[in-house]
């Protein structure tokens, strides 16, 4: 797999600090021209300043790379469209989009205000939707695109106090699943990255000795592999402290229970069999899952 990005143009959102900054620096160091997007807000999404994005652009230029700064909020579709138009006007293409911008508004669900739920969905999910929508026609036309969604273990597996964030982060995996299918014939590959790193977002979550080991730069190899020319599509890679795993949304073999009046009781009695995980698989699409169920039912009905 080539990890040379010469000639490629990348947009990295939320690239003024933390993981996004490392992604932008690494792509630029490997030859990509980079749009460094960042609203420059606090972790809770308040405020904004162009200073963070500009500083990363300066770092890239000082190292001999090419970059432009962009201060759009990913929640503003018109501003995101302008960001893509500017990238096209400057470099004539957009090959890579890393949806990385994010905020937190943590609280247990009982105490969470609806506005805090909505804002987190707006930044993570709608922000990524806006960026994907703006680059999609460009990537279709080029017949080339690589999109990386930044998901999270909170979305994949849950985390106390993060119902808003977890819902938004798993929604990005759902977005990936369909965009990967729809983009396939245009060589648009869409993947997800679940990072673990010491940034301002996590500094209060981990003890100091863990934070030492969780360098944001250690997540970058997973992003590079997911954004590369030979990237997979529909992969979910987890990365932190030099460890890498793949997460899957699997389907158990299940059983055909039937369609009698007592099906609810039958299902309740055999729930352990339905849930048992030997031989589970990852369907190619939602339609493939439906097809599997129908096939199982048909073969049983033919036997009866
Ligand atoms: P961070 O706070 O350092 O970076 C987030 C960046 O996004 C900030 O620079 C911020 O200014 C920017 N931003 C926020 N709202 C924006 C908006 N509306 N438009 C444009 N930019 C905006 O935190 P980080 O840890 O580097 O987070 C990067 C991504 O990784 C986030 O999506 C986060 O949810 C995700 N993530 C991080 C971890 C981790 O362990 N750090 C774990 C799982 C997921």
Automatic annotation (TrEMBL):
Keyword Oxidoreductase on entry: yes
Residue ranges annotated for the Ketoreductase domain, each copy included: 8-196
InterPro entries associated with the record: KR_dom, NAD(P)-bd_dom_sf, Peroxisomal_Beta-Oxidation, Sc_DH/Rdtase_CS, SDR_fam
TM helices/strands, residue ranges: none
Superkingdom of the organism of origin: Bacteria
Keywords for this protein: Oxidoreductase
Gene Ontology MF terms in the entry: oxidoreductase activity
Pfam family, one: adh_short
SUPFAM superfamilies linked: NAD(P)-binding Rossmann-fold domains (SSF51735)
UniProt entry tagged with the keyword Flavoprotein: no
PANTHER family linked: DEHYDROGENASES, SHORT CHAIN, SCP2 DOMAIN-CONTAINING PROTEIN
Family: Belongs to the short-chain dehydrogenases/reductases (SDR) family.
Descriptive protein name: SDR family NAD(P)-dependent oxidoreductase
């Amino acid at each position: 797999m080539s990890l040379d990005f010469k000639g490629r143009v990348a947009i990295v959102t939320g690239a003024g600090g933390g993981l996004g900054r490392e992604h932008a620096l690494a792509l630029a160091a490997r030859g990509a021209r980079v749009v460094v997007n960042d609203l420059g807000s606090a972790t809770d999404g308040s405020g904004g300043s162009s200073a963070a994005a500009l500083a990363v652009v300066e770092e890239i230029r000082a190292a001999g790379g090419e970059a432009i700064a962009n201060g759009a909020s990913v929640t503003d579709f018109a501003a995101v469209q302008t960001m893509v138009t500017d990238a096209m006007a400057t470099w004539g293409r957009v090959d890579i989009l890393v949806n990385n911008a994010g905020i937190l508004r943590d609280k247990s669900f009982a105490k969470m205000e609806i506005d805090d739920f909505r804002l987190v969905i707006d930044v993570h999910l709608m922000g990524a939707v806006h960026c994907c929508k703006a680059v999609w026609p460009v990537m279709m036309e080029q017949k080339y695109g690589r999109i990386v969604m930044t998901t999270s273990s909170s979305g994949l597996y849950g985390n106390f106090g993060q119902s808003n964030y977890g819902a938004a982060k798993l929604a990005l995996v759902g977005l990936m699943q369909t965009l990967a299918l729809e983009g396939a014939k245009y060589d648009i590959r869409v993947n997800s990255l679940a990072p673990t790193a010491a940034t301002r977002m996590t500094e209060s979550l981990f003890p100091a000795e863990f934070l030492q080991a969780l360098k944001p730069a250690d997540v970058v190899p997973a992003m590079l592999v997911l954004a590369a020319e030979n990237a997979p599509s529909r992969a979910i890679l987890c990365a932190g402290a030099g460890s890498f795993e793949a997460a899957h949304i699997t389907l158990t073999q299940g059983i055909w229970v039937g369609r009698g009046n007592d099906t609810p009781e039958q299902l309740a009695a055999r729930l352990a069999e339905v849930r048992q995980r030997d031989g589970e698989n990852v369907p190619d699409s939602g339609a493939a899952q439906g097809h599997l169920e129908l096939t199982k039912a048909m073969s049983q009905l033919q036997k009866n």
